[in-house]
Task: inverse folding
């Protein structure tokens, strides 16, 4: 069974950093793009970052560009999201998702198998 397990969320002050991890199992990890999405209270789920099958190409939402970095370790079946210079507006539940193809996208319909999510709270 495909499983995605996020970890690393927590409470941090504005300007701080967190590193989220997503451990994947149940499929050939290196065959698929991976992505991170988030959902803040009262808002729709939105795209954050994506990475292609090899980690050679990445794509970010404008709101996090320059602050967040997505990476993956195919040997460990894990995708990461390094979040720096965090802002209160980054507060959300962050979800890991498996892409349907080898290259990443901002469109949610191109992803399947979502994790449970991990809460990130940034205080001002």
Result:
């Amino acid at each position: 069974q495909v499983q995605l397990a996020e970890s690393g969320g927590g409470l941090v002050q504005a300007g701080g950093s967190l590193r989220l991890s997503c451990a994947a199992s149940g499929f050939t990890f290196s065959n698929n793009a991976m992505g991170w999405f988030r959902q803040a209270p009262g808002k729709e789920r939105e795209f954050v970052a994506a990475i292609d099958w090899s980690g050679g190409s990445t794509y970010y939402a404008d709101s996090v560009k320059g602050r967040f970095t997505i990476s993956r370790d195919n040997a460990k079946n894990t995708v990461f999201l390094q979040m720096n210079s965090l802002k209160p507006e980054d507060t959300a539940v962050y979800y890991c998702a498996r892409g349907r193809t080898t290259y990443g996208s901002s469109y949610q319909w191109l992803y399947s198998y979502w994790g449970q999510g991990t809460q990130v709270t940034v205080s001002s």
Notes: The longest strand covers residues 18-25. The chain has no helices and eleven strands. The CA atoms of residues 13 and 123 lie 5 Å apart. The chain has a mean pLDDT of 97.
